[in-house]
Fold:
Amino acid sequence: MNSSIPVRVILPRSWATKKKSTFPVLYMLHGGNDDYTSWTRETDVEALAENSDVLIVMPDGGKFGYYSDWHVGASRWETFHTTELVQLMEKEFRASPSSRAIVGLSMGGLGALNYTAHHRGMFRYVAAMSSYVDLNDPAVRLVLALGSQRDGTDLKQVWGDPNENADIWQAHNPSAMPRAFRGTTVHISCGNGTPGPLDQGHPLDVIVVGALAEAALPNSVKKFAASLRSAGVRTTTHLYGPGTHSWPYWQRELHAIWPTVMRSLK
Structure:
């Protein structure tokens, strides 16, 4: 990355006493327009982790880094996360080289899925919350276009031109490579875009944006889950309603999957 990238780490409860032990690792990827502090800022992951002997690693991924080695420019987020960071965790924090899981939300969920597909065998379990899983879906393309226009990111720099560099786009499209998830348990979840009780107290504009962003997801998530199962991939889904693109729903989902994530790392 040619710069210093922050990473927040929660140490296992026995990290200081078991000085020669290695520990399973859970990587947690944040969403767009956010940073490495988001999981501890918006959820009670620290409390959840108190009774675990798992190393929890929350790296920064850039506000709009898309968890990719960019087609144009020096950003190499995937190489940093899946090579440099993994090696650093193993060397300095006694991370296990064989017991890893990864969880991401929104942009981070797309990253978690792509990292799993690109590096087969690296993760035992992957969960993507409220994430785009099919870059070919017209609704997803529209939301991506609007989002990149709003945040000033040129997706042609990230993955190239959608037509001229279709191979790069498909290489970052989870739905285009269901067989690559064999050997990993996949969990996908999203809401239906309808505001509910968990949205109370949020400004109206935040609710509207969250509703529109989430409403684009269920159809592609259902199709992706079906293709994964057809390919022989262990797959679970949670499609819920009401549910918008917002933290209260992701906090609830984190609690729902936590026991399964911990079991996968044993």
Notes: The chain has a mean pLDDT of 96. The longest helix spans residues 247-264. DSSP finds ten helices and seven strands in the chain.
